[in-house]
Amino acid sequence: MGIPSKAGMPTRATFIFRPKKRREGPVERLLIGLRDFAIEKVVSRTPPVFEVRWTGKNACPHCACDNLRVKDSFWRTIRNISIHGRASRLLVRCHKYRCESCGRYFNTRLAGIKVWSRTTELLKHNIFQAYNKGVTCKEIADEHRIGVASVERYYHQMMQHKSSHWANRTCPRILGIDEHRFTRRQGFATTFCDLARRRVFDVVKGRSAADMRDFLQSLQGRHKVKVVCIDMNSAYRRLVREWFPNARIVADRFHVIRLVNQHFSELCKAIDEKPLAHGRGGMMRLLLTRRDRLTDSQKERLRTYFADRPDIESLYEFLHDTADLLRVRAQSVDSCRKYVAELLKKIDQLRKTSFAPLRTLGKTLHNWREEVARMFRFTRNNGITEGFHREMKLIQRRAYGFRNFENYRLRVRVLCC
């Protein structure tokens, strides 16, 4: 039996085979990595193109009603993750709906794909991971058959998404503050590090309280900060006292011992200029090396040198006694009293000496005696912060430098946590 055509002539009946609709299975999740999608057919193998069908439930995004009416249909082409090194595409038939409850119109919402986006979130995440591993933008763009600008845009979107989770964070209980150079033109930036969780809390441009006033005012939970570790910087000490009123300031152990070594080496070079000031034989390095790390041959060299210079030997013993005292940490309250008394005694000896470098050292330690004394009780230091500064340099090197500080800040907050 024929079916009449528009011209009135009989034509042969056409039968169309429509396969039974499949539900999502493990094959779909294995190939395309998305849930609530069923593969209808393979359109192309090189490059891989799949015609897929959305199997999830549709509901109005405004009122959550599922009483919908289809007004129109259209095809969407979606970029997806690569399969065996070849960029894949998905063809999805979507619909334009009208909600019978609220009367609003909307298109099909697909899981794992944002509205008006032509790329899956899974692909953006893969690009983000490859970028962090050091793969160049050109290599990523060639693999996924997209432009270099698209790679940068997707990477920036993922960083903003990850950074948005920390928008309303409260200040950590143990905070480390230190500065590092951002660029030669724009100067320094200040790093706020969560020493308890070993991650960067935030990075702020500038290193004075005036430069960071807006940032400090926006911080939540400043009164909850209990300990702040800084180097011997008076500007940071004033900043902590003003903006973190309940925090105890602890001097960074490394910077304190380095300050002692600097003044000691300056005095030794002034006393014995010929072998020490010109660096002959590495004697200055031996004088600054910890006594418990010297080898037998090095100890013999020092004994031979001290036989001719007994004045430097007395300075050497005083230096290392002071340095060993400053390395004491994690003591009880009763033990701290004994060490604090010994520290104050050495500071008085330094202030009363006739050598100018040691008097300067004694004056500095006297001005910071409270912060230095707290090192006996607390174990935290800015070694974690300095380690993150090295990682920040690698971030700048990988990006060939930054001009926009906010882009640099965004990357640091995401990658150094």
Describe this structure in words.
It holds the Pfam family DDE_Tnp_ISL3. InterPro entries: Transpos_ISL3, Transposase_DDE. Residues 175-412 form the Transposase IS204/IS1001/IS1096/IS1165 DDE domain. This is ISL3 family transposase. The structure is a single chain. The protein is elongated. With 417 residues, the chain is of the alpha/beta class. The strands form three sheets. Strands 3, 4, 5, 6 and 7 form a five-stranded mixed beta sheet that branches. Strands 10-9-8-11-12 form a five-stranded mixed beta sheet, with helices on both faces. The protein has helices at 26-31, 121-132, 137-144, 148-163, 213-218, 234-243, 253-271, 273-277, 283-288, 296-308, 310-326, 333-352, 356-367, 369-373, 383-398, 405-415; strands spanning 3-4, 10-11, 37-44, 49-54, 68-83, 86-99, 105-107, 174-183, 187-194, 199-205, 227-230, 248-251. The chain folds into three domains: 19-113, no CATH class; 174-251 and 381-415, Nucleotidyltransferase, domain 5; 254-376, no CATH class. α2 crosses α4 (148-163), α7 (253-271) runs antiparallel to α13 (356-367) and α12 (333-352) packs antiparallel against α13 (356-367). β11, α6 (234-243) and β12 form a beta-alpha-beta unit.
